[in-house]
């Protein structure tokens, strides 16, 4: 589980979450666990799908027809809000085709 990883606190300099953040039922729990695991100067990198214009329709379809595990597609504003609200600072943000890429640091 991404919510209880069996490593000591501050054990990693880098954590990469690629195309999986939208599968987490509780992104807040994942972000808290990543914060626990990262060293003080560590980075969290999140690469997440980015679907322009059709996000609402896509999310509706996910909720109606998807099996367990597909939760939600996030727009950049939503991810920024989630990161900021959970104590993370965005140090880099890029968009490439259907990928949104974020580098995050703990915001003390």
Written description of the protein model:
Residues 2-46 form the Methyltransferase type domain. Keywords: Methyltransferase, Transferase. Pfam families: Methyltransf_11 (PF08241). GO terms for molecular function: S-adenosylmethionine-dependent methyltransferase activity. The chain is of the alpha+beta class. It has three helices and four strands. The protein has helices at 27-37, 55-65, 76-85, and strands at 12-18, 38-49, 88-96, 99-106. A four-stranded mixed beta sheet has the order 1-2-4-3. A hairpin with a 2-residue loop joins strand 3 and strand 4 (99-106). It is globular and about 40 Å long. It starts with 11 loop residues before the first strand and ends with a strand.
Q: In summary, what is this structure?
A:
This protein has 108 residues and is of the alpha+beta class.
CATH topology: Rossmann fold
Q: Per the principal axes of the C-alpha atoms, what is the gross shape?
A: globular
Q: Report the top-level CATH class.
A: Alpha Beta
Major sheet description: 4 strands, mixed
Protein structure class: alpha+beta
Rg on CA atoms, Å: 14 Å
Average pLDDT rating: 87
End-to-end gap? 26 Å
How are the elements arranged and paired?
Layout: E1 12-18, H1 27-37, E2 38-49, H2 55-65, H3 76-85, E3 88-96, E4 99-106
Parallel strand pairs: 1-2
Antiparallel strand pairs: 2-4, 3-4
